[in-house]
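debug: dumping io for the single-chain case to check the tokenizer round-trip. Nothing else runs in this session.
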Amino acid sequence: MADPTPQDMAAKLLATGFERSGPSAGALTDPIADTPMVVTLDELRPYEHDPRVTRNPAYEEIKASIRERGLDAPPAITRRPGEAHYIIRNGGNTRLAILRELWSETKEERFYRVPCLFRPWPARGEIVALTGHLAENELRGGLTFIERALGIEKAREFYEQESGQALSQSELARRLTADGYPVPQSHISRMNDAVRYLLPAIPNLLYGGLGRHQVDRLAVLCKACERTWERRTLGRTVAVDFATLFQDVLTQFDTQPDDFSPQRVQDELVGQMAELLEADYDTLALEIDDSENRQRALTSEPTAPKPPAAPVVPAAPSAPVSAPQQPPVSSVPRDTKPVAPSAPAATAPASSEAPEDQRGPRDERLQGHIVTPAPTTERLQSIQRMVANQLGDKLPDFEADALRAIPVQVGGLYPISDVWYVEPGLDVPDRLRVHIAQFAREIAEEAAVADHIEASVGGIGFVCAAPAVGHAKALPAFARAVLTLLDALSSAPPTANGLDRALLADELAALLHGHGGSATRLSDAALVKLFRLLRLARRLLDLEAGVASQDS
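debug: decoded output
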């Protein structure tokens, strides 16, 4: 083969290169791992679901720090698939706003080109981003109560889109905790009330920083007044419903938090209620205060009990004296009227003078009877004792009765300390129906079907708004079994819906004692509430049949 001439070599070097036959990429794809990069302010956008709506209280301090030192750490950014702009991933919207402000003021390049840490968009991107912003805002400057509440409501929306079904408050609390933002279920309940009932009436007050304790006060006031309103308007027609009245009154107090007084709201609300209900103001105020104190006691966090003081032991006599022996307590049913103990046995309760070596086993046994704590307060207990003394009745003592009757303790709107005992104030049909309906709702809440339980002024106090056949079949087996059980207990005539009472016999064993797996049975707390519901329903039917029972 002949050697190439210089002309041949020059022609080959000047020849055109290979041409691409396939499509060319207009832009590089996002990295698939955490990657440092520099982006401009034009390429970066704030996270649109950021729970912070008001200005960060530390805004000026953060701005001064960034002006002098720049960013201490690069903000984490990400990008949704298919979008052109990057967004802040978890916390950093305040810093981004400050960078834009400093760039506008100084035109310094260090505020325009921002070193960032890119993180790929995860599979659960919206939930991860929102919970990340919630947690980061808590660490870097805190959120107002209403901002936190709106953020959690948005998280509920994302979770329900992800699961395709509505979530109960307890399930929402569980998922938030699993994603790194723990919130107690009781706080979620109060936040939900604030968003639904308070935000439309007092937005300026809430965004101005009204705290959780004042929100709690308003929520308790609202529920106490609503219960009084429902009780006094039963069978009557009034010109306005309570929800409208409460909104109208509350709107008048949409000021700054420093000028807000919950007592003024209560005075105005009670005054308008007294006028509409044609009731005495003082009587109505006392009734609402009593209901409010009870509601506050039930929703407050329980405090640890103080250890009892050591009893003073008198000097032993020189001659031995044989003490009267107390007969053993038999486990008799509450239908039998208890016999009063003899005077020597009643002189001192066993709970306060138990020997030191017996207190440990006794306390352990007592704790074994507590399913969930029933919070109370000294004020509520003193009111209950005063009412009992006026009626000549004796309040049940959980610790003293722990070895008799059916001892149990379960919290809720109406805490249970004795499954069988019916208080005199509760022993009327209307009050019994209110309690029965509440227990039915709390049992249904465990299966996330509480919205199917409706209070009723007839029957035993509630009815089941049973779903259609197609919707009922889509319910989980546990939810369908709980709803079928409550529907059967409501004594309503069977209707053509998706609840087949004939199948209840097959589901009852799994529901009550967990045959087939603990996931299909009621919790201990729900089981106690079911027992209490049955007890109150039996008493209600006895009262309406004219039977004067002796066991109450």
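debug: round-trip ok. Residues 21 and 313 are 102 Å apart (CA to CA).
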